[in-house]
Specification:
single chain, 263 residues, alpha/beta, Rossmann fold, 8-stranded mixed beta sheet, elongated, binds NADP nicotinamide-adenine-dinucleotide phosphate
């Protein structure tokens, strides 16, 4: 019997998806297959996910997830001519559904996604877009696959550069903020390990409060900003240093870079 899903590329994203799909009950290990050209990656998948079929050549499956680096993605699609998939979900950054479809057997339904790295711990946010031949059933299928590693939003493909600039690159912006806060705590006199724990705990706690309270970020910020208080002094400095504008420019620059790379 052919596997329910073949993951082409068993690296970081492919392995995270296998873990999420099995843990979330989307599939039992025996119904998943992973194709990777790297023997080391095949060994790692076999060791960490017993029961999953690991292959070095394409096999026919009900659906395929493409999780290889962008520079080899079209070649990986062409290699599937011998085992044509009915539908394919690509998590490859920057490669349009039209380019993927051109490298696949005619009629393959293509769904493109932009996940982000918190998917590696089951807390990703992914945007999916269907290509010309993808139906709502194909999008439902893609949403169920990526839903195993986080939340999924559907948008037309024209938004994907902006999505890349915001949620695709966004974790790196937050990590930069974490680095800066740790440095700032040390500069203010805290031991480095204490500063690290406090900065990371603050970011994680603030994100949880933002998600769980249902309140908007401006309301939550106002709630901790007493008139002439310490937070007001800190926020005034951030606004004076144009931090808000810096984030707007960062997302705009990443969006434009995504446009350039996709050409
Ligand atoms: N990591 C993330 O959090 C993240 C987030 C958003 C999007 N993505 C996208 O996800 C894709 C995969 O990223 P990743 O970080 O998981 O990459 P990765 O760790 O490099 O994994 C890709 C794996 O695929 C193998 N491979 C190369 N060519 C192949 C082929 N033709 N058939 C089968 N396997 C092949 C690679 O082997 P070699 O090492 O020998 O080449 C490697 O083991 C990328 O396109 C990236 O843009 C990743």
């Amino acid at each position: 019997m052919s596997p329910k899903l073949l993951l082409v590329g068993g690296g970081r994203m492919g392995a995270a998806l296998v873990g999420g799909l099995v843990a979330g009950g989307w599939a039992d290990p025996a119904s998943l297959a992973v194709l990777d050209t790297d023997p080391g990656a095949r060994e790692r998948i076999a060791a960490s996910h017993p029961g999953v079929t690991v292959v070095a050549e394409p096999v026919v499956a009900e659906g395929v997830v493409l999780a290889v680096k962008p520079d080899v993605a079209e070649a990986a699609c062409r290699s599937m001519m011998s085992a044509p998939p009915r539908r394919l979900l690509s998590v490859v950054a920057g490669l349009s559904t039209a380019r993927l479809a051109a490298a696949l057997p005619p009629g393959t339904a293509v769904v493109r996604a932009m996940p982000n790295t918190p998917a590696l711990v089951g807390a990703g946010v992914s945007v999916i877009s269907g290509g010309d031949t993808a139906t709502s059933a194909d999008l439902d299928w893609a949403e169920s696959v990526l839903g195993s590693v986080g939340t999924v939003v559907r948008l037309p493909e024209r938004y994907l550069d902006a999505v890349t600039g915001l949620s695709g690159s966004g974790p790196a912006y937050v990590f930069l903020v974490a680095e800066a806060l740790i440095d700032a705590g040390v500069m203010a006199g805290l031991p480095p390990d204490v500063s690290r724990d406090l900065a990371i705990g603050t970011i994680a706690g603030a994100a949880k409060l933002l998600v769980e309270s249902g309140d908007g970020p401006a309301d939550l910020r106002a709630a901790v900003t007493s008139p002439a208080g310490t937070t007001a002094a800190g926020i005034r400095t951030l606004e004076f240093k144009a931090v808000r504008s810096a984030f707007i420019e960062a997302v705009a620059a990443a969006t434009e870079r995504s446009r350039q790379l996709g050409r």
